[in-house]
């Protein structure tokens, strides 16, 4: 299940980000107001007029503003369908919702070249629908574990990362893992599953660049045809092997089924009856919550701006061949992947060894991540002709180090309000989706001719958002659970009694069996002291 989930996550990240590189070879740059094939070195072109550049110069006459609208369209569907998709996941279960998103998304991807050839508006509509299917594919569930006289939230840093990036409160895959993953194996299994997100980002860039130049059906259409077919192939594997629960799976042994079910006896699904009502008014009034929302938005602004615009910058300013662009754009996201994981280890050590407090750790992470990203982005815009390698180094460091921010704002959701983290991060994620919509539009408006000076303005705007968000976060951040987010002792005891009552009622005709269950629960969950 973990391997299948890994492949699915990787594939659907490629469907999301395939446009970032492919749009470079879809558009006829000679029909736009573009000043040069290499704005950094105006007297130089990537190739001669008769060289292979002509073979990958698309026929679609889209201005930079239209390109910005197309790049942002995915997030219009993404942001507008999170609540309906949450209902569907709860109603029909993880397997069918994931399968539906995969099927519709794959078909729409296969239709993308035809839509683009008809007109930009139809292509935008298709991208919006693909955004909707990705929310179906990545939806939510929420779980808590009763142990050690308190509610312990079982989210790992890997889970939190994907919680943020995928659209719903937690991925639909998480609905399945809440019923499949033994508690001691949750980090490993979900980590494998969700590692596909970064792998998909890294893989799609060079593949798109190669297919632009060497693919069939005119080059760039082959990107969509191949990825759509791969998604359909994965869907067949998913339908054959996947199941919502171990009890309904036909291809696992009885021993494995019993092991999983017994290991999950202390895990219960959270719902509105098992926790207090969400204090929305208090949340909206909380300075600490607004601090983490601002940090969240600014970090995602930088991420979305680079994800959607970096290939265009390399084409406009650096004048790289599309194949080279695909491979080079992947480098920052390899660094990004390692920075996320290394920063998490370092942040935990700083806190566990009492070197820094929680609030100081969160502040330091954000300053290092977004402050450094702002500096390196601006610096990359001012490199001179012949310094293309330096630009790549700056961008790789700047984008890579931004991954440290996940040890700042992301885990701070659980620092300040673990009981309501799902609801609060849902709002934060919705706000961050606005960045996904706005970034391509802003880049398109600011770079009508693709000059280096215009891209310098884009980087300055991005740096301003990064620094402002960091400043607000540093001022407002808290490192402890806020008073209104603490669970009262009697509530924890009530949850225990409810779970214990369910255990008694399942087998009350067999007293000895019931006593064994009560004993097992008592060893793991004790009454909170009054």
UniProtKB/TrEMBL annotation:
The chain crosses the membrane at residues 96-116, 122-142, 223-241, 317-343, 364-382, 388-412, 424-446, 458-477. Residues 504-520 have a biased composition (Basic and acidic residues). GO terms for cellular component: membrane. One of its GO terms (biological process) is monoatomic anion transport. Residues 521-530 have a biased composition (Polar residues). It is found in: Membrane. PROSITE patterns: MFS. Keywords: Membrane, Symport, Transmembrane, Transmembrane helix, Transport. Residues 501-530 are annotated as: Disordered. GO terms for molecular function: symporter activity. It comes from the Eukaryota. Residues 1-481 form the Major facilitator superfamily (MFS) profile domain. It is a multi-pass membrane protein. PANTHER family: FI19708P1-RELATED, SOLUTE CARRIER FAMILY 17. This is MFS domain-containing protein. The lineage of its organism: Eukaryota, Metazoa, Ecdysozoa, Nematoda, Chromadorea.
């Amino acid at each position: 299940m973990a391997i299948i989930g890994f492949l699915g996550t990787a594939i659907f990240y490629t469907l999301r980000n395939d446009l970032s590189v492919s749009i470079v070879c879809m558009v006829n740059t000679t029909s736009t107001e573009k000043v040069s094939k290499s704005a950094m070195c105006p007297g130089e072109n990537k190739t001669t007029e008769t060289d292979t550049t002509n073979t990958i110069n698309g026929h679609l006459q889209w201005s930079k503003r239209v390109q910005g609208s197309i790049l942002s369209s995915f997030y219009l569907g993404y942001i507008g369908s999170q609540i309906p998709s949450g209902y569907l996941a709860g109603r029909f279960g993880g397997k069918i919702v994931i399968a539906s998103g995969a099927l519709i998304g794959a078909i729409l991807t296969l239709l993308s070249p035809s839509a683009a050839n008809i007109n930009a508006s139809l292509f935008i509509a298709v991208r919006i629908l693909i955004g909707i299917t990705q929310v179906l594919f990545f939806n939510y569930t929420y779980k808590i574990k009763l142990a050690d006289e308190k509610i312990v939230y079982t989210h790992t840093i890997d889970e939190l990362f994907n919680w943020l990036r995928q659209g719903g409160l937690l991925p639909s895959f998480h609905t399945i893992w809440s019923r499949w993953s033994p508690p001691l194996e949750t980090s490993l299994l979900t980590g494998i599953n969700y590692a596909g997100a970064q792998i998909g980002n890294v893989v799609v860039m060079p593949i798109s660049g190669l297919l632009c130049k060497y693919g069939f059906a005119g080059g760039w259409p082959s990107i969509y045809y191949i990825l759509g077919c791969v998604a359909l192939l994965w869907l067949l594997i998913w339908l054959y092997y996947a199941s919502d629960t171990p009890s309904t799976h036909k291809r696992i042994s009885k021993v494995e089924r019993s092991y999983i079910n017994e290991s999950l006896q202390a895990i219960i699904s959270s719902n509105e009856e098992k926790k207090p009502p969400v204090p929305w008014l208090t949340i909206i009034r909380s300075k600490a919550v607004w601090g983490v929302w601002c940090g969240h938005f600014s970090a995602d602004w930088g991420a979305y701006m680079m994800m959607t615009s970096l290939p265009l910058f390399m084409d406009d300013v650096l004048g790289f061949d599309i194949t080279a662009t695909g491979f080079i754009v992947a480098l920052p996201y390899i660094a990004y992947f390692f920075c996320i994981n290394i920063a998490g280890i370092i942040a935990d050590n700083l806190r566990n060894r009492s070197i820094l407090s929680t609030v100081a750790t969160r502040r330091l992470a954000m300053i290092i991540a977004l402050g450094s990203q702002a500096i390196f982005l601006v610096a990359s815009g001012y490199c001179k002709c012949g310094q293309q390698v330096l630009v790549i180094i700056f961008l790789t460091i700047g984008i890579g180090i931004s991954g440290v921010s996940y040890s700042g704002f992301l885990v701070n959701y659980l620092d300040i309000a673990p009981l309501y983290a799902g609801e609060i991060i849902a709002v934060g994620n919705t706000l961050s989706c606005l960045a996904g919509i706005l970034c391509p539009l802003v880049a398109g408006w600011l770079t009508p001719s693709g000059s280096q000076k215009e891209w310098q303005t884009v980087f300055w705007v991005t740096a301003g958002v990064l620094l402002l968000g960091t400043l607000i976060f540093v001022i407002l951040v808290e490192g402890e659970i806020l008073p209104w987010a603490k669970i009262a002792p009697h509530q924890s005891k009530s949850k225990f009694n409810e779970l214990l009552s369910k255990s008694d009622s399942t087998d009350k005709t067999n007293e000895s069996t019931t006593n064994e269950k009560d004993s097992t629960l008592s060893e793991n969950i004790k009454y909170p002291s009054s």
